[in-house]
Amino acid sequence: MSAVPSRRNAIGMLALVVGLVAYALVAMVAGAALAEAHWLAQFCFYVVAGLAWLWPARLLLRWMARG
To answer: Are 42 and 34 in contact (CB under 8 A)?
Structure first.
């Protein structure tokens, strides 16, 4: 195993950071649109939005590990 990170890891980390920032911004705008909604609707949105990023991140991390 090499101590030098592969190009796949660098691309994956960049994609992960950029993707999470973009996702957070979209979730923030969508959450602001729900500011007047019932508390239960807000709660459900934030639970789903808080967990939705895990699936794509897991796929990206698996791709990086295959390198």
So the answer is: yes
Q: Which two tokens stand for residue 22?
A: 């973009």
pLDDT in tens, 30-47: 999 999 999 999 999 999
Question: Which long-range contacts (C-beta less than 8 Å, at least 24 apart) are formed by 20-26?
Answer: 20/53, 20/57, 23/52, 23/53
Residue 65: closest CA among 3, 14, 5: 5
Tell which wins on pLDDT, 33 or 4.
33
Inter-axis angle of helices 54-66 and 39-52, to 10 degrees?
0
Cβ neighbours of residue 13 closer than 8 Å, sequence gap 6 or more? 64
DSSP-derived letter for residue 35 is: T
The DSSP code for 37 is S
